[in-house]
Amino acid sequence: MSKKDIKKKRAINSAKAENKRADSGKIAKLSRAPAKKNPKKRRIIVMILTIVLNLIIVGYIAVKEIGKSAKEAQFISFADVKYLFLLAGVLCFCIAVFVEYLKYKDMIMMCEGHIDRGGAFNCSMLGKYYDNVTPFGAGGQPFQIHYLYQRGFSSGTSSAVPIAAFLMQQIAFVAIAIVVFIVNGPMLAGIAVVRVVAFLGLAMYMAIPLAIIFFAVLPKPFKKLIGGVTGLLAKMHILKNGEKSAEKVFSLLDEYITSLKAMNKRPFFFIKMFIFSLLYQLAILSIPFFMLKAFGGAGDWFTVFSLTVYIYTSITVFPTPGNAGAAEMSFYAVFSSLKGGFLFWAMIVWRLLVYYSWIIIGIIIVTKSAVKNKKHKKKQVPQDRPLRVALFIDLFYPSIDGVVRVVDAYAKEINKSGGYACVFTPSNGKKYVDNTEYDVVRTPSSRLFKFGVSIGFPVLSKKLIRFFKEKDFDVVHIHSPFGEGLLGLRLANKFNLPTFATFHSKYYDDALNITHNKTTASLVSNAVVDFFCQVDVAWACSKNTADTLKGYGFKGDVGIMENGVDFLPTDDSESIKKDAAEKFNIPLDKKILLFVGQQIWQKNLKLVLDTSKALSAERDDIVTVIVGCGYNGDEIKKYARKIKIDDRVIFTGKIADRRLIAGVYMLSDLLFFPSLYDNAPLVLREAATVGLPALLVEGSNSAEVIEDGVNGYVAKDDVEAMKEKIVEVFSSDRIKTVGENAKNTIPKTWEEIVKKALDGYREADI
To answer: Which of 560, 587, 613 is the last residue of a domain?
Structure first.
C-alpha cells in the first residue's frame, strides 16, 4: 500500500469513526470494540474500581506490616534505600518498553513495507494499558486491532500484529516458566495454595498458544472442536448463537494466519520476535529482585526470579482488571518468607512499575489520540528552483563499478541542470584526492583490506551537521543501504528531508559469495529490506530488479528509475580501434567475445571461461577479452590457466580511459555478459551505443530489455547452450542488424534519466 493510499484510508476511517461508532463492519467484529452507548464512561468506572481495589489491598498489607514489631517498622528513610538497585529496576522496565516497541515496529514493517514508529509505540503501549484495565489482565488485543485499523493499516495487519505479538509473549513466558518449574519446582512446597494456583495458571498460559498453533497446523479438526464447544455453550444458554460465535473466532484466526504466513517468508523473523519477547519477560520478571534489594531484602536473583514466575502464573486465574489485588497479595505471600528489608515498599514500587506505569502511559496516549493532530510533513521539495541533492554511496572512486558510475552521472547531470549535487562516501584509507566537477565529502570509515573497500560509520559529527546545514539540501538520495546509507537516513531525519533510495544490487548473492553461508546472506537481505522500509520512496533500475527487492520481503511500492549511459566517442573510430588493439594486443583477424565488469565470481565468469573452453575445442577463430578488476581477479586468471585457455583469453585489467574502452567495444563482435547478479548493467547500454549486440542469460534481470534475435540474444545458463548460441550468432548474417537495433532501442542518455529523477523528487507525495 502506497503512502498516498494510506493517507486516503486514514481520512476515510476517521470519518467512519465519527459517524458510525457502533459500526458492525468486519474490523468491529474482529476487535470486539465496545458498542455501549457510553464506552468512555464505562472505562472510567472500571478504572476507578480497579484503583479502589488496589488501594484496599495495598492498605490491608500496609496495616498488616505496621502491626509488626518495632524492629520491622515500615517507616523508611531515604538513607535506607539502595538507589543503584532501584535504578536497575527502572532500567528493566525501560528495557521492557523498548523491546516491546521494537517487536511491534518490526511486525508492522514486515506486514506493510514501511516503518510507523509512532503507531508501533502507541499500539504496544495501548496493549499493555488495556491489558491492565480489562479482566484477567489480557484484553488489550481487540483495542490494538481497532487502533491499527483506524490508523490506516489493512485488516490483515491490524489483526495479525497484536495477536502474533501476544502469541510470542505467551510462548516466551511459558518457556521461562517451564524452566523455572523444573529447576525450582520444590520452592513453594510450604505455600501449597499458591503452588496449585500457579500450575493452573501455567496451564492457562499454555492453552492459548497451543490453541493458536493447533489452528494453524490442523484447521479442520480445530474448527470442529470450536464448533462443538460453542454449540454446547449455546445449548447451556451461555452463548446466544453458537454458530455466529464460532464464525467470529474463525474470521479472526483466518485474518492473522494470513498475515503470519506473509511474515514467515523472511527467515528468522519469528526467532527475532521470540528473542524480543524473551527479553521483555526477563526484564519484567527481574524487577522484584531489584526492588527487594533496593529496600534491604534478601535472596539471590534466580530465587527471586523463580518466585516472581510463580506469582505471575498464579495471578492469571484471577479475573480482576490487570490481576489487581491478586498480584499484591501473591507478592506479599511469596516474598514474606525472605527475611529482612521493607517488603511493603518493595511491593509498592514494583507494582508502580509493572502496573501503574502502563496505565499512566496508556492514559497519556489515549488523551493525545483524542486530539486530532495533523501529520508533520517533511520539507517540501522546491518547485521553482534547481534542487540541492545529497547523494550517499558506500563505494566510490578510485573504485569503479556500475553504481559508482550511476552516482557520478547523477552528480554531473544535477550540476549541469543548475542544481547542486554532493556525494557522501567513506574515506578510502589512501591518499586519494577527489578530482571531480562536484563536491565529494569523505566520512569516517573502517577499511576492509581483504576486499579493498571501506565501510562508513553512520555517525553525525558536528562538522558534518554544519556542512549539511550550510548547503541547505532539498533531497537525500541513497544508493547503498549500509553504513553510508544509514548516515544519509540520519541526516535526512535530522533535517526533515525527503529520502529516496535506489536498489541496485543483489545483496543476498553478494553476502552468499563472500560468506558461503545462507543464514548470513538471509540476515543481510533482511537488513536491506529493513533499510528500504525506512525511506520515503524506493526506486529500482528495472522491473526485474524491483521484483528482486520484493522477493527479499519488501512490501512497499517500488518505482522504476532506469540507468542511462554516457555515449562513447565514435569519431575517428579507426584510430580508436587501432589504439585499443595495440594497447591490449587484441587480434584483428579473430572473432572477439567481450566481457566487461568486476572480476568477481558472482558475475558468472566461470561460465564465460568454460564456454570459451568449449568453443576452443571446435574453433580456433574466437578469442575472449575480459575487461575489469576485482577481488577474485587472481583466482579467475588461475582458473583460466587451469583449464588451459589462457592463450585464448586476454585480461586487460581496469580501463579508465573512455576512448580506449570505446575502442575495445568497437573491436568486439559480441558482448558476452551472462551475469545473473547484475540488474540493469551499464556495460550492456555502453555496448549498444556503438552497435555491439549482447548475449545474456535468458530470464535474467540484465536481459529485461532484450528481445532475442531482434536487439540482442539470450540463452540458458548453461555452457553447451551458450556455446551453441555463440556459434549460431557468428554464423548468421544478422549480427550487424541486431547491433543496430540495440543501438536504437537500448541506450538512454543520463540527461534524460536524471531529468526524470529530478521530476520524481518534486512529484513524490511524502
So the answer is: 560
Q: Which residue has the cell 479502589?
A: 52
Q: What is the pLDDT of residues 416-441, one digit of tens each?
A: 999 999 999 998 766 788 889 999 99
- In a shared domain, residues 29 and 140: yes
What are the φ/ψ torsions at residue 542 (nearest 5 degrees)? -165, 165
The candidate with the shortest Cα–Cα distance to 80, out of 354, 334, 340, is 340
Cell of 600: 568477481
Which amino acid belongs to residue 381?
Answer: V
Report the run of H or E that residue 372 belongs to, with start and end: none
Q: Which CA distances in Å does 213 have to 127, 160, 378? A: 22, 14, 43
DSSP secondary structure letters along 581-599:
HHHHT--SSSEEEEEES--
According to DSSP H, which parts of 326-377 are helical?
A: 326-335, 343-351, 357-370
Cell numbers representing residue 558 in the block = 517500488
**Nearest alpha carbon to residue 699 among 505, 574, 481, 543:** 543
Query: Residue 135 in 3-state DSSP?
Result: strand
The answer to whether residues 690 and 662 touch, using CB atoms and an 8 Å cutoff, is yes
Q: Are 316 and 187 in contact (CB under 8 A)?
A: no
Q: How far is CA 714 from the centre of its chain?
A: 35
Domain that holds residue 441: 388-560
- Contact indicator for 286, 245 with CB cutoff of 8 Å: no
Total structural domains within the chain: 3
Helix, strand, coil proportions of the chain in percent (round to 5)? 60, 10, 30
From residue 71, alpha-carbon distances to 58, 79, 298, 361, 371 in Å are 21, 17, 16, 38, 52
Residue 28 confidence class, pLDDT cut points 50, 70, 90? very low
Residue of 323, 63, 322, 277 whose CA lies nearest to 164? 277
> Is residue 133 in some structural domain?
yes
Q: In 10 A of CB 246, how many CB atoms? A: 21
Check whether residue 556 and residue 634 sit in a common domain: no
The rounded distance, in Å, linking the Cα atoms of 475 and 473 is 6
Dihedral sign (CA 187, 188, 190, 196):
negative
- Cell digits for 239? 452463548
Dihedral sign for Cα 472, 478, 479, 485, please.
positive
Measuring CA to CA, which residue among 194, 436, 469 is closest to residue 312? 194
Cα gap 294→104, rounded to integer Å? 32
The last residue of one of the domains, among 560, 595, 629, is 560
Same domain, 627 and 735: yes
Residue 280 lies in a domain: yes
From CA 764, how far away is CA 3, in angstroms rounded?
A: 10
- Asked if 291 contacts 102 with a C-beta cutoff of 8 angstroms, the reply is no
What are the b/e assignments for 531-568, b being 16+ CB within 10 Å? bbbbbbbbbbbbebbbebbbebbbbbbbeebbbbbbeb
Asked whether residue 378 is domain-assigned, the answer is no
What is the reported pLDDT for 106? 87
In 3D space, the residue among 133, 129, 131, 108 whose CA is nearest the CA of residue 118 turns out to be 108
Distance of CA 266 to the CA centre of its chain: 10
For residue 66, the model assigns a pLDDT of 45
Query: How does pLDDT run across 223-281, given as a tens digit for each residue?
Result: 787 778 777 777 776 667 777 777 777 766 665 565 556 555 565 777 888 899 999 99
pLDDT tens digits for 64-100? Answer: 544 443 344 445 666 778 889 999 999 999 999 999 9
Please list the alpha-helical segments (H only) found in 218-263: 219-235, 242-263
What are the two backbone dihedrals, phi and then psi, of residue 562, each rounded to the nearest 5 degrees? Answer: -65, 170
User: Based on the domain organization, do 347 and 414 belong to the same domain?
Assistant: no
Other CB atoms within a 10 A radius of the CB of residue 374 amount to: 5
